[in-house]
């Protein structure tokens, strides 16, 4: 056949998709949707009647789960939309460095050191103050489409 050697550059991930298709008419309020390639939480859905071109349309108003921006999209209800795989994991807070990175304890006993304090100033201040007071804090980390961010905090009592 051929004496040529082929070299392939490994550029793919493990094959897990960042989104999955879902029919627009089945997406409800408080669900998730991908608008302009951003993972968003749906805050409002309205559906128009079928027009002369035959499709009822869904109007989505959603808020980006990482930066809080409001996004809108209109999709025919019979068409598919991309829905992000959204995961939420709780970690125990161990330390906060001067440059804003946090050190978190995972379930298996290792540490996770690649997250910054959240961009939400009120939440970041709450985490810093609670840590300075010596409270035992658990943070919720939301991840979707290759991004992760701390989005909630729980106080489980003094250390």
UniProtKB/TrEMBL annotation:
Keywords of the record: Hypusine, Initiation factor, Protein biosynthesis
A biological process from GO: positive regulation of translational elongation
Pfam families: eIF-5a, IF5A-like_N
Post-translational modification: eIF-5A seems to be the only eukaryotic protein to have a hypusine residue which is a post-translational modification of a lysine by the addition of a butylamino group.
Function: Translation factor that promotes translation elongation and termination, particularly upon ribosome stalling at specific amino acid sequence contexts. Binds between the exit (E) and peptidyl (P) site of the ribosome and promotes rescue of stalled ribosome: specifically required for efficient translation of polyproline-containing peptides as well as other motifs that stall the ribosome. Acts as a ribosome quality control (RQC) cofactor by joining the RQC complex to facilitate peptidyl transfer during CAT tailing step.
PANTHER family for the chain: TRANSLATION INITIATION FACTOR 5A FAMILY MEMBER (PTHR11673)
This protein's name: Eukaryotic translation initiation factor 5A
Species the sequence originates in: Plantago major (Common plantain)
Gene name linked to the record: eif5a1
